[in-house]
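Hi W.,

Here's what went into the run:
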Amino acid sequence: MANDDLLRKHKVTVVGCGNWGSVAAKLIASNALKLTAFHDEVKMWVHEETLPSGERLSDVINQTNENVIYLPGVKLGNNVVADPDLEHAVKDSDMLVFVSPHQFVEDVCMRLAGKIRKDVEAISLIKGMEVRVEGPCLISYLISRLLAVNCCVLMGANIANEIAMEKFSEATIGYKENKEVAERWAQLFSTPYLSVSTVEDVEGVELCGTLKNVVAIAAGLVDGLEMGNNTKAAIMRIGLKEMRAFSKQLFPSVMDQTFLESCGVADLITTCLGGRNRKVAEAFARNGGKKSFDELEEEILEGQKLQGVLTAKEVYELLRINGWLDLFPLFRAVHEICIGHIPPSAIVQYGEIHLPSSIPSSP
Amino acid sequence: MANDDLLRKHKVTVVGCGNWGSVAAKLIASNALKLTAFHDEVKMWVHEETLPSGERLSDVINQTNENVIYLPGVKLGNNVVADPDLEHAVKDSDMLVFVSPHQFVEDVCMRLAGKIRKDVEAISLIKGMEVRVEGPCLISYLISRLLAVNCCVLMGANIANEIAMEKFSEATIGYKENKEVAERWAQLFSTPYLSVSTVEDVEGVELCGTLKNVVAIAAGLVDGLEMGNNTKAAIMRIGLKEMRAFSKQLFPSVMDQTFLESCGVADLITTCLGGRNRKVAEAFARNGGKKSFDELEEEILEGQKLQGVLTAKEVYELLRINGWLDLFPLFRAVHEICIGHIPPSAIVQYGEIHLPSSIPSSP
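Here's what came out:
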């Protein structure tokens, strides 16, 4: 192969080595080998850890081709090279996949600023943005701003372990203007068991990944109240409609179509059928609201905080400041139930407030 | 109250006395008493039956205020008057609610032709239209044509018994042009536990009620294959997208919005979580397709035919004749699996055919 060809090939680094990061590396590694547009080798930045055996995680990944801590039992592909040196891991790459926990991404980007290639394209797989009263802190925006790069997002109904087991799933890539880049990312992630679509709507796609957790709390309450599938379906539908209306209030460019993609309705369904937010909310309703979410998180999740409860609080504040509370009765009720102001059963008292006509509807 | 007022009040007859018809009568009766626009008395046409006691069903309903056969234990409201004489039951009414089993509606309409008021408005609650190769036989069209009246439809994620128990549900009314009439129907059905919205799309709303059963078969297959919530959510999403694309191919006036209403995504969720179509398809996949749907229907439903299997076959024929099979890989696969041409596992082999880009997408 001529040197020119090598230079023209895209080189990928996965910035993160957790469960989802390892699955992303596996997907990308299999496609990098198959597709001529990509360099065979895929780098994975490993936040170094020492195993009980005394070995370093990055060495073990490179020796065994397995992330023994975060994705044990699954071969990543022998073209995945773990690298514990962040700057070194990214320096030759023009495609960076961000997949660290959301609280670390800002720090990682600050360390990378000025150290990456000028032609880098980024994609964020990170869910869980903060929703401040001045608006949501999109992680794609953060990456884009700190690194001065274009940044897509990939979301959807995809649980890392199920994709690792090659069960059929879908994902949605949200992009801004440059469809060609989005299609390149789609190529890199698509496999026979992962169907990836693209939509020109970074904001809508990323917001779906965060707002669905608020709806999952509502769905869990309905489960705990044993109200049946009809009521649960109604609450999920109302939640999807509020997700869409809320996203459009904040970003008028958000597209209706996004909510019918995997990141929208499908991720919402998965999250409302399984998931931790649903589970803890179910327990909350079963206890008649007598045990707080804090206590139940302690018991069920060993103190880990639920994304949905935090997001519901943040969304509520934003709605309150803007005078939008009446437009989003479900989002509003979820927070008021979480903090014990109204009982769990209030989640279905919508008849009184004539919900469907009060939400801004799409054209 | 002056005679003029009485004349101006709308008078309602429920044409049907089954499970859903009885619940409809209960909803309407409670609103007719409350709202001044409607005559207090609500007629219900009863296809007469004789109880084991020798009493006639219509007499028992009028004496006990309960449909002891089809909705035992629930009071309909003492302003519901059962009438076994079809012509007599409708003769003073200007609002007719059609809720008989779908195979009887044509006969009922033929008996009513020329015998109803000139100003009648109709609404159909009947699901289960036939999909002929020349197009779906919308039941609202049939009623409209045979009686020369305007006909709305009411569909949604609403199981009669759950509404009878006053569990929170939603419904969607599809109408043609006349929004005022649709709002009047919405008033008549809305209660604190049933939230009713309207959408100017008779065809889309009615098609949802039929096509969802094909998707429920796909969802049941995924359950039987134990592929998990991600895969199931993906299949439901693809199904919803095919429902929309199919409806728009047949009726370009169909609106995207309809699929986010209760008749769309919510009814689909309910049907894919519970329901007979899902259940039998699950058993089919568990048996590796070795027992036919016919046999399983015999075992599980005591020979009753599954709507979804019939509709899948009819939809397949329509797709084949029009050369659209490749545009609807999920609908296609469901029928081919039902008749044993491909294995149940083929329901998730979408990666190869790049589904998302092959479906006509919305603007």
